[in-house]
Write a structure and sequence with these properties.
Length: about 375
């Protein structure tokens, strides 16, 4: 099956600065593909090259198997939704959505029909005559998408479209965007620095750092099987320790941290030798919390500590535990079972985690 979008060895330089370096990826038809990375990593530059607003220094961009390097932006079978939406305030909703169709010279009757159909599909059939400033933030988002989808693009590009929304609306729009993408069956290419947006909505995610793709995969791949220290640290939250490998035991190395803690980890096939400097990552939710040491003795790593802080955030609540042996603080997800509702600062607890949940990388790999 021919990909809807394919970028081959894509590079963009601005003088002596390389913004995008030799990036290649393909996006199957009807899928939701996200590029996730911190500000300044090059993800918007990729988006602008796909849209035609920037010419690549080298490489190729194919849509439906055909190169679009020599195709003007307004002739490419792509459309773009920006963070600030760019809806026309002087036009009503129907006129906003039909703008591109009018530019294309479609008869008025066909425009009316197409606008009505797309308003039905975004679940807002009655708002065609309303002004843009009468809409809620979520309604504006859907209208901006409808204005693009009515033109039936092969690929829809979305440049941090939820960034200007408040937190609660942003959470709801993640679900709505994924549902709209499935309903229209159009390929979405989405860029964001917000990992939760990418994890919730995407079929495939590329994690980008300093102009390069660090790893591509499903949300589960990136979360549970990170291939680089950057991915392990950027996707989700992690406790991180540095130290030296005391014993490299067939993919399950033991690392002595700089603070003296001994951690059994998981190298996932990466070669790590005795005495080698390394970093190890353990997610707060991978750590079990107990008041009884015997409940954790079956785990590869377990220790005793004292609660130094309670970080209450409903279902995402955490505690900080200071290890008595190394004096280091460890962030632990608080179980929602209610058994630790009375936990207080200063309480002595036991924590433990499996070596499988401790991702180990050679130091300097980042």
């Amino acid at each position: 099956m021919t990909p809807d979008l394919q970028c081959i060895d894509l590079t963009k330089r601005f003088g002596d600065t390389t913004a995008v370096s030799d990036v290649s990826f393909s996006v199957p038809p009807g899928s939701f593909f996200s590029i996730l990375g911190p500000s300044g990593c090059g993800k918007t530059t990729i988006m602008r090259m796909i849209a035609g607003f920037l010419a690549p220094t080298s490489g190729d961009i194919l849509i439906k198997g055909k190169s679009v390097l020599d195709v003007a932006p307004n002739k490419r079978p792509v459309n773009m939704v920006f963070q600030h939406l760019a809806l026309f305030p002087m036009m009503n909703v129907a006129d906003n959505i039909g703008y591109g169709l009018r530019r294309a010279g479609l008869p008025k009757r066909d425009i009316t029909r197409k606008v009505g159909e797309v308003l039905e599909r975004i679940g807002l059939p009655e708002i065609g005559r309303r002004r843009v400033d009468e809409l809620s933030g979520g309604q504006k988002q859907r209208v901006a998408i409808a204005r693009c989808m009515v033109l039936e693009p092969d690929v829809l590009l979305l440049d941090e479209p939820l960034g200007a929304l408040d937190l609660k609306l942003r959470e709801r729009m993640k679900i709505e965007l994924k549902a709209l993408q499935a309903d229209f069956d159009t390929t979405f290419v989405y860029i964001t620095h917000d990992q939760s947006e990418a994890l919730v909505m995407s079929d495939q995610i590329a994690v980008m750092n300093q102009g390069c793709f660090e790893q591509m995969g499903t949300a589960r791949d990136l979360y549970y099987r990170p291939e680089t220290p950057f991915v392990a640290g950027f996707v989700g939250d992690s406790n991180r320790w540095s130290g030296r490998i005391e014993r490299s035991d067939g993919g399950a190395p033991e690392l002595r941290t700089d603070s003296g803690l001994l951690i059994r980890g998981n190298a996932q096939g990466r070669a790590l030798g005795d005495g080698q400097s390394a970093d190890i990552f353990v997610r707060p939710e991978a750590i079990r919390l107990s008041r009884n040491e015997t409940e954790l003795t079956s785990l590869d790593n377990h220790l005793k500590g004292r609660v130094t802080s309670l970080l209450f955030n409903a279902a995402a609540s955490r505690v900080l535990v200071r290890d008595e042996g190394s004096a280091g603080e460890i962030e632990v997800a608080l179980p929602q079972s209610g058994e630790f509702d009375d936990l207080a600062k200063g309480d002595v607890v036991h924590i433990g985690w499996s070596g499988e949940q401790a991702n180990c990388f050679a130091a300097g790999a980042e």
